Amino acid sequence: MHHLKAAANFVPGGLLFRLRASLRWARHADQHRHGTSMQLMDAYMSATASVSSRHSAMKDFPSTLAVDAASCALRSGDVRRAAELLEQGRTIIWTQMTRLRTLLDNSQTHSDHAAALMKRFRDLSSLLDRPPASHADGTPSINVEAEDTRYRRLVEDWNGVVEEIRKIEGFSRFLLPPVFADLQEAARDGPIIMLIASKSSCDAIIIPHKQSPTSIRLPTNLEKLQTLVVKLQRTSRPALPKALMELWDDVVRPVVDILGGFARRHSRIWWCPTSVFNFLPLHAAGEYRKDGQFLSQLYISSYTPSLSALIKARRHDRSLSVSFAAIGQDRPPGVSFTLDCVEGELELVRSLLPLPPTVSFTKITSVDATRSRALRALQDNTWLHFSCHGTQNYDDPFNSAFLMRDQPLSLLDITQTDLSRHEFAFLSACDTAAGDPSTPDEVIHLAAGLQFAGVKSVVGTLWKVTDATVQRLVEEFYKNFSKDGKMNSKRAARALHQAVHSLASDKDMALDQRIVFVHIGI
Q1: What letter does residue 522 receive in the DSSP assignment?
Q2: 103-109: long-range contacts at Cβ-Cβ below 8 A with a sequence spacing of 24 or more?
Q3: 487 bridge partner residues
Q4: Do the Cβ atoms of 163 and 122 come closer than 8 Å?
Q5: Of 476, 501, 480, which Cα lies nearest the Cα of 492?
């Protein structure tokens, strides 16, 4: 144990060497050592330049590091520490991207300085990641000492740059773990429920805005949850209600039993799932029988990929002007069938929005809906509605995309676009909130990508959606969303909740279609 600790703290060994040593140490130690691993992973990933290389690197390390650390903290009774560890060890790729963008955009007066610091940080990190050359017997001691001196100076320079970055406003905790008192601000408009699935236990943490957090041991285990995910993927009519009842009994009802002390009925709550919980439709849990209880009868559910993402989404003031782009593509190349209702859907959206000058409406469809036009519309408009084919790429999730007339508009394209002033996006496409099973806690899908890029409020889909469902739900959603002639992105969750409720009595609509849409964000 002592040797693993020493290796993790051996700075000249390079970030990757230290990270691997700390992961071995964490397997034999408590959550404080998990914290060391996550700080080193954060530093290592900060030194990795491209998004694809970060995702590849994540696959090489344990996907359960954050949940194992949080579970360990809960076993010792430290609920706050568990929440901190979950936030520190998840959505690392998104954190790196938003951190860099915020650093560069933080202040007009500091932008050149910040850019120079970030370049220097990356250059030094890259040099530090190359361990000192091994010296053969007989190598002159003066050469060995010179190499050691060079490396120590690199370390000193790296530490100096990190300290300089921390002097920039808003970056005092750069490469430092989050503090619970800051994270609790995410619960300003309603409690957050973080769900943890580890081999040792499955737990929920309820985080209210002002009260102390509380943890709940859930009456399930990781294996049962994994089986439940498989059941829910088979969305046949007889099997789905039974699976959603199991989700209610094992996960949601134990939370609801405690939630009354933190949130009044019919108010908003936010789910922050981890691990296998990312693939469960928590909002749809209930007793699917006559006079049964359903979560949707009690609370309005939203999701957030992380606490920091929710805090960031609330940071900017709401824009008074509404520039709304509706982007539709019915027949991209390589797709075997046409989406017949795209044009009608976009006209329906137009008809339900307030008239100019309240809303400035742009429609892009058919041959005009190319990747470049869609990307330009994405940049120029702060309110968005996509109606097209959507794909979740499981081999390379950053190539998940909206399919346009010529080329796909990929998640990678979106991540490279500053959407920090954007208010809302409705994603009327398949699989836009599906996620990547190989790195579940990175939450890599189109809906999350838009939120991390800056969009405050996003409506997406968990799986495939039919034209008939879209037509019905889009109409009901926008009727509720802008019924008084005003536009407010904070209304999206309630508008979706009401739209889904209006479809609940339609027994001709399959259950999997009634629950396919989810809300992410404020």
Answers
A1: -
A2: 103/165, 103/168, 103/171, 105/418, 105/420, 106/168, 106/169, 106/170, 106/171, 107/168, 107/169
A3: none
A4: no
A5: 480
What does the pLDDT average to over 29-43? 59
DSSP 294: B
Q: Exposure of 368 by Cβ count < 10 A (0-12 exposed, 13-18 middle, 19+ buried)?
A: middle
The pLDDT value recorded for residue 118 is 81
| pTM confidence score | 0.84
Q: Which residues neighbour 5 within 8 Å (Cβ) at sequence distance 6 or greater?
A: 25, 33
Q: Phi and psi (nearest 5°) for 138?
A: 95, -5
Kindly list the strands in the beta sheet with 401-403, ordered across the sheet, starting from the edge strand earlier in the chain. 390-391, 401-403, 408-410
- Cα–Cα nearest to 190, from 318, 299, 285, 278: 299
Comparing CA positions, the residue from 254, 271, 240, 234 lying closest to residue 521 is 271
Within its chain, how far is the Cα of 224 from the centroid? 24
Q: Regarding beta strands 300-303 and 268-273, do their DSSP bridges make them parallel or antiparallel, or are they unpaired?
A: parallel
Nearest to 365 by CA among 408, 330, 391: 330
Question: Rounded to an integer, what distance in angstroms lies between the CA atom of residue 150 and that of residue 144?
Answer: 10
Structure tokens at 37: 């691993």
Distance CA 449, CA 197 (A): 23
Q: Residue 383 burial by CB count (10 A; 0-12/13-18/19+): exposed, middle or buried?
A: buried
Find the mean pLDDT for residues 222-245: 88
Q: Render pLDDT for 354-388 as a digit per residue (tens, 0 to 9).
A: 999 999 999 999 899 999 999 999 999 999 999 99
Contacting residues for 337 by C-beta, under 8 A, at least 6 apart: none
Q: Say if CB 89 and CB 104 are below 8 A apart.
A: no
The label of the residue with tokens 């806690």 reads 441
**pLDDT tier for residue 173 given thresholds of 50, 70 and 90:** confident
| Single-letter amino acid code for the residue at 14 | G
Among 378, 365, 370, 430, CA closest to 405:
370
